[in-house]
Every structure is written in structure tokens, then in C-alpha cells.
Amino acid sequence: MIISRSPAETESLGEKFGQAARSGWVIALSGELGAGKTQFVKGLARGLGISARVHSPTFALAAQYAGGRLELYHLDLYRLDTQEQILSAGLEEFLRPNGVAVIEWAERMTLFSRRDFECKRVQIEILNENDRKITYDDFGA
């Protein structure tokens, strides 16, 4: 657990995840709107060596980024309300990515109760306007 005092610190933690990431990782990101989930993903992409501009795929549901040491699949479940919508969107294929998959609003996906894939959990909690409490699984860095 760490306390991030700025978006740059949140990105820095994501970058460390990206540097340590292995192919097949699924990162389950949770936190309320504005907590810094996309900032974390921007850092993750940088840590993977991806230079593309990263943005939240809220309307597209998924974005794919190449050009780094591993491909990054960025999913956002914000607009999906039910398990039926999530399952019909075909997201289960991202649970065994050829690269790294990061899923924003992962708490909406009951598939994360399974343990037959390698999942790293990151929870971002807003403490105040600038500070975030980030709780995460060991990622080996």
C-alpha cells in the first residue's frame, strides 16, 4: 500500500508495474470515478515501453497498444451494468492475454473470482483532492 500525492506518483507506480510485467498478466483496477485509474494505465504503458498516447476506452470498451516489449490491452467496464453485458462483450478472451491486460472497473466483473489466470489487483481510493491510497498485490518489482 502506498499513498500517492499526485497523478505523477500514480503514473510512476503504474510504470513500475509495467517494468515488472510478464506476458499473461491481467491487472484488475478498481476505484471510483476520478481516482486515477487511467493515470495508472498511462504509467503502465510507459513501463512497457509503449509511446502511444493512452486514454480511457470508456466508449470503445477496449484499446490495444503495441510498440513496447509486450502488447497492452486496456479495457474499461464503466458502461457495462450487468454480468450478461460483460459476458456478451467477449471479455473473457482477455483473461489470458498475449501481453498484459488491464481492466478498469474490474469489480464489475465476477470472472475475477476465478483463480485460473494470473491476476494482479490494484485498488485506488480517493483520500482528498490530491491524495490517493493505492493498495495492490505484489508484482515482483
Question: How would you characterize the overall build of this protein?
Answer:
It is built from three helices and seven strands. It is α/β, with parallel strands linked by helices and 141 residues long. The chain has one domain: P-loop containing nucleotide triphosphate hydrolases (Rossmann fold, 3-Layer(aba) Sandwich). Strands 1-7-6-2-5-4-3 form a seven-stranded mixed beta sheet. Strand 6 and strand 7 form a beta hairpin. The protein is globular. The relative contact order is 0.26. The model has no long low-confidence stretch (mean pLDDT 89).
Main features:
globular; seven-stranded mixed beta sheet; 7 strands; 141 residues; Rossmann fold; alpha/beta
Shape: globular
Contiguous low-pLDDT stretches (5 residues minimum) are none
Helix content: 10-25%
- The H-and-E topology, N to C, reads as EHEHEEHEEE
Roughly what is the average pLDDT, rounded to an integer?
89
Number of strands: 7
**Rg over C-alpha atoms, rounded to the nearest angstrom:** 14 Å
- Largest sheet report: 7 strands, mixed
CATH homologous group name: P-loop containing nucleotide triphosphate hydrolases
Query: Separation of termini?
Result: 14 Å
Q: Tell me the β content.
A: 15-25%
User: Strand order across the biggest sheet?
Assistant: 1-7-6-2-5-4-3
How would you classify the helix and strand content by structural class? Answer: alpha/beta
The CATH topology label is Rossmann fold
Whole-number count of domains: 1
Assign the CATH class.
Answer: Alpha Beta
**CATH architecture classification name:** 3-Layer(aba) Sandwich
